[in-house]
Amino acid sequence: MSLTALTHRRLATVSSVGNTIPAVLDALWAVVGPTVTTYSDGSTRSFSGAGATGWTWTRVQVGGTTEALYATPPGGSMDQRVVLAGRSAAPAPSPTMIAPDSFLASSLLISHQLSAGAFTTWNSATPFTNSRFMGYTRATAAVTTFTTLACCVYETQETIIVEILTNGTGIQLALAGAIYDPETTAAATGETDGRRYGVMVCGGALVSNSLGATANGTMWVHSTSAGNGHTYVWRPGVTTVDVAVRNWTSLGTQTVANYTDLAGQFPGMPLYIAASSAWVGRIREMYLARSMLYHSRVETTPGVIGAYGMGWSTTSATGDALFLRY
């Protein structure tokens, strides 16, 4: 049985004032801070109540310099948190990283926590006191390698997508939260709330357009090399984190016609994930779809959003893309 469907809302994009990691974190704070009460389409950003998608973000500064942001969802029973962090040099102690990644100066890091307690410090071995802290993985390359960076965040009731447009053309992407639906009521397949939680990053690579091709691409893959794409999923009820990959869907060379029906509609194909230990489930309300440009939106009728299109480029609409259910 499927979980309650997630609905995606996109916040306004904010450009970083420089290519330093504090500047990027401050730009992200401008995107998500508690004073932001509307989404990019003008809809209300609600932080509580039925269907609320607004996460409550907290900024962590050391000596006036932003080093981390952490987010608390509007609901849920698992006390999850998502952390974004980074520094121009390793702090002491150095943050816990998930192998094969190691700390990289000026890289944006991301991590996930379940059963969170009180926050301590972002670089502690247990930032939220409880031991179900995943450790960090690199969400981006060192931001100092880019000339311009534009930051955007999508929120749902239970997940967060962080998207950074680099040099005006290429996209780096990270996703965290209750991403997966086991689509069964068998207790062993999920946490006590029936969900599977995790993190997916493209790492130092730009998002590629090969979700439907035989090539690995960069989304929902797992590389054994540092700085590449990684997918991690919590094993239910324990502190073990498994690596995971999507199951292949291939149509050979993708065309717009492959992803458009005879009525001119754009179907979205579900995506499924398997971990190193066992089957995980379906990626919730994110679909393989026809190609489109960065920050497209699909309207069911004029002015009515049906989905956001997550394209891999601002200039090329070849290959494929992701639909995010609105």
Describe the protein in words:
The protein has 326 residues and is mainly beta. It contains 1 helix and 18 strands. It has one domain (9-286). A hairpin with a 2-residue loop joins strand 16 and strand 17. The protein is globular, with a radius of gyration of 18 Å. The mean pLDDT is 93.
Summarize the model shown.
By secondary structure, the protein is mainly beta. It contains one helix and 18 strands.
Structural descriptors:
single chain, 326 residues, mainly beta, 5-stranded antiparallel beta sheet
Secondary-structure map:
Elements: E1 9-10, E2 14-15, H1 21-32, E3 56-62, E4 65-72, E5 81-85, E6 107-113, E7 137-142, E8 149-155, E9 159-166, E10 170-181, E11 196-201, E12 230-234, E13 241-246, E14 269-275, E15 279-290, E16 296-301, E17 304-310, E18 320-325
Antiparallel strand pairs: 1-8, 2-8, 3-4, 4-5, 5-6, 6-7, 8-9, 9-10, 10-11, 10-15, 11-12, 12-13, 13-14, 14-15, 15-18, 16-17, 17-18
Largest sheet: 6 strands, antiparallel, barrel
Q: Structural class, judged by helices and strands?
A: mainly beta
Distance between the termini: 21 Å
Mass-distribution shape:
globular
Kindly state the percentage of residues in helix.
under 10%
